[in-house]
């Protein structure tokens, strides 16, 4: 890897600022000052220092967050804070949400800079189960609740779609609180499914993705890195 690229990968420096640091003699390679940006670096064995501080490439990261309300899963700055503004990691802007949550939806959010792993989690082909808790505007019980459970199990044709949803599982915790397990990720799918059932979702929370469950002790806005077992579960 070129030395200027290595610097931009391991520090906040842009390529142009990395070249300036080289020109100013701020960079050493294996103890020797280096000024040539095109110098090749063995990322496994060479020692690169910037102003005496050793640099190392950032590896692949896998993060879970308890996403709070009024936080966006977007790379662009907008009306609300972004999830990556909450995470204190080097090169955090490389992390991408693994399936987004709406700004008003809370719960488990996974982020990574491993594109292949992200695809395994989100690809419809892998049918990764996602569990949501929905607070409903209108109570559903008795025959109405049973009909909703059966409709969800068969698949629902959403407005504007040509194919019904994949079979899903609906369970009522209370008449106005429901647990919905889906294996897809269509646009606003959970809210649209309840709309098709004649109801409205007042609040939505994602509890789990696959075998990864949001821990009870991870408060809204908090995050941690996934364990090796959690990463390997997908």
Automatic annotation (TrEMBL):
Q: Identify the residues that the record assigns to the RNA-binding S4 domain, covering every copy.
A: 1-61
The enzyme's E.C. designation: 5.4.99.-
Q: Which GO terms describe its molecular function?
A: isomerase activity
- Catalyses which reaction? uridine(35) in tRNA(Tyr) = pseudouridine(35) in tRNA(Tyr); uridine(2604) in 23S rRNA = pseudouridine(2604) in 23S rRNA
Q: Which SMART domains match?
A: S4
Task: Note the InterPro entries from the entry.
Answer: PsdUridine_s_RsuA/RluB/E/F_cat (IPR042092), PsdUridine_synth_cat_dom_sf (IPR020103), PsdUridine_synth_RsuA/RluA (IPR006145), PsdUridine_synth_RsuA/RluB/E/F (IPR000748), PsdUridine_synth_RsuA/RluB_CS (IPR018496), RsuA_PseudoU_synthase (IPR050343), S4_RNA-bd (IPR002942), S4_RNA-bd_sf (IPR036986)
| Keyword Protein biosynthesis on entry | no
- Top-level lineage group: Bacteria
Enumerate the CDD domains for this protein. Answer: PseudoU_synth_RsuA, S4
What's a Pfam family in this record? S4
Keyword terms: Isomerase, RNA-binding
Against PANTHER family, the record matches this protein to: PSEUDOURIDINE SYNTHASE FAMILY PROTEIN-RELATED, RNA-BINDING S4 DOMAIN-CONTAINING PROTEIN
Describe the family membership recorded for this protein in Swiss-Prot or TrEMBL. Answer: Belongs to the pseudouridine synthase RsuA family.
Q: Could you tell me what this protein is called? A: Pseudouridine synthase
């Amino acid at each position: 890897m070129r030395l200027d690229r290595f610097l931009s990968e391991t520090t906040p420096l842009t390529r142009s600022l990395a070249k300036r640091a080289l020109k100013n003699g701020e960079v050493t390679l294996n103890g020797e000052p280096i000024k040539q940006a095109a110098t090749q670096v063995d990322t496994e064995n060479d020692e690169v220092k910037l102003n005496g501080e050793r640099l190392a490439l950032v590896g692949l990261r896998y993060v879970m967050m308890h996403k709070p309300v009024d936080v966006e899963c977007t790379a662009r700055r907008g009306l609300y804070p972004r999830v990556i503004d909450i995470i204190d990691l080097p090169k955090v802007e490389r992390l991408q949400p693994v399936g987004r949550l709406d700004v008003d939806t809370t719960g488990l959010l996974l982020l990574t800079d491993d594109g292949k792993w992200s695809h395994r989690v989100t690809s419809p082909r892998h049918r990764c189960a996602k569990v949501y808790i929905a607070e409903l505007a209108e109570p559903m019980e008795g025959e109405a609740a049973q009909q909703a459970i059966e409709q969800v199990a068969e698949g629902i044709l959403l407005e504007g779609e040509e194919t019904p949803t994949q079979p899903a599982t609906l369970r009522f915790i209370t008449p106005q609180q429901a647990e919905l397990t889906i294996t897809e990720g269509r646009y606003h799918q959970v809210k649209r499914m309840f709309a098709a059932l004649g109801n409205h979702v007042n609040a939505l929370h994602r509890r789990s993705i696959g075998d990864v469950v949001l821990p009870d002790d991870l408060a809204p806005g908090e995050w941690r890195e996934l364990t090796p077992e959690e990463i390997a579960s997908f």
